[in-house]
């Protein structure tokens, strides 16, 4: 496995920007359509639409470390944009695990791409997991940011056992469907254009 080069890092930056744009669009779409559950469904809905970006990055930058960089950049965004202080941790952990699955395991190539993408997609649960597991600390962080009681109550209104499982399983469903959609788009529009592939043949995506 070759090491990342400067041009590889630049390419990862481009795909990370596109991925961030998809996250933003999904967030805005959910905010206007399902406002009560928008933050909880962002990871799953993003996974549904970002599969093609993930595949393009794997093809353009078939190097261990590329996935980690993409996830880490997203984590840093959460860190500097006022989210709960530990929101960035899942992004980094999931990105590293996805990298290991994609490039350091010997399982079926197609299966490992699905698995790595699903694991990577769980990184976006970073801002919402504290709602269930670190409620008091999350409330304190909101108070420190000047949020009033009404706002805090609205944040925790959808936080139930059902919504937790909804968040977790939506990522699996969104990841599988998103990768299927991504493979279809890739093979239809990009496989004949891209001449570099992490697994030698685009059809194995």
TrEMBL record:
The keyword Transmembrane applies. The chain crosses the membrane at residues 12-34, 40-57, 114-133, 162-182. It comes from the Bacteria. Keywords: Membrane, Transmembrane, Transmembrane helix. Signal peptide: none annotated. It holds the Pfam family Trep_Strep. This is MptD family putative ECF transporter S component. The lineage of its organism: Bacteria, Bacillati, Bacillota, Bacilli, Lactobacillales.
């Amino acid at each position: 496995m070759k090491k990342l080069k400067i041009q590889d890092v630049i390419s990862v930056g481009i795909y990370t920007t596109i991925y961030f744009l998809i996250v933003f669009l999904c967030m805005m779409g959910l905010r206007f359509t399902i406002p009560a559950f928008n933050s909880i469904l962002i990871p799953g809905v993003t996974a549904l639409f970002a599969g093609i970006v993930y595949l393009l990055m794997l093809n353009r930058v078939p190097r261990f470390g590329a996935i980690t960089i993409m996830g880490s950049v997203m984590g840093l965004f959460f860190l500097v944009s006022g989210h709960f202080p530990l929101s960035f941790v899942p992004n980094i952990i999931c990105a590293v695990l996805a990298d290991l699955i994609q490039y350091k395991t010997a399982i079926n190539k197609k299966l490992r791409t699905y698995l790595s993408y699903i694991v990577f997609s769980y990184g976006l649960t970073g801002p919402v997991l504290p709602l269930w597991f670190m409620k008091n600390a999350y409330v304190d962080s909101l108070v420190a940011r000047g949020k009033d009681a009404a706002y805090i109550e609205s944040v925790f209104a959808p936080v139930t056992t059902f919504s937790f499982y909804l968040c977790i399983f939506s990522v699996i469903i969104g990841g599988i469907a998103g990768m299927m959609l991504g493979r279809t788009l890739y093979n239809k529009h990009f496989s004949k254009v891209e001449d570099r592939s992490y697994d030698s043949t685009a059809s194995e995506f």
